[in-house]
What does this fold into?
Amino acid sequence: MYNPQYKRVILKLSGEALAGDKGYGIEHSVITSIARQVVEVTRQGVEIAIVVGGGNIWRGVSGSAKGMDRATADYMGMLATVINSLAMQDALENEGMVTRVMSAIEMKEVAEPYIRRRAIRHLEKGRVVIFAAGTGNPYFSTDTTAALRSAEIEAEVILMAKKVDGVYDSDPLKNPEAVKFSRLDYIDVIKRGLGVMDSTAASLCMDNNIPIIVFDLTQEGNILKAVLGEDIGTYVGR
It folds into this structure.
């Protein structure tokens, strides 16, 4: 039995992470690995909620850039997050985890409506809660959803699972000389546009003092390491 540093967390998964090397759709091996790691974390007594993006299926900003109405494109993106959330639910339940998908857009046949007190109660009962459909509003990203839901359910940290092992001063995939940060202040992220999350989400985290840990999802076991407070990735906070 480990000694977790955090007792209630939000895990933010990008849609692209679920696609693995394919770049599109859902890679079974990836989502299964994530599910196993989440189950391992819950066994340490940690309450975990998940926010999943939809970029592996549809990105609202991309649709808008091609002439589509921005609100319509964003609603399509919200539906993409529901698809990913249901896939994540299935993977978790295959690992024996009791899970609830809560949607910001009402679709009672496939998900519960998001109700803050109900979400907290699910977590207290040891269930994994997956927040789908973003905030239910266009023009807001799933990063903002993660920040908002963290504040609402009083999560102690946001775990930002990426395909890179932290935050760099430039794109490490394009610049081999890129420098990795071990620790950053919120205001540095906002002023320098470092790509941890969008400015709305970062401001919300700063205003509510919600720390962010950016780490590499592709290394199995990293979710547990982040929860245990091990020095992996980049810590954003005060």
Q: What stands out?
A: The mean pLDDT is 92.
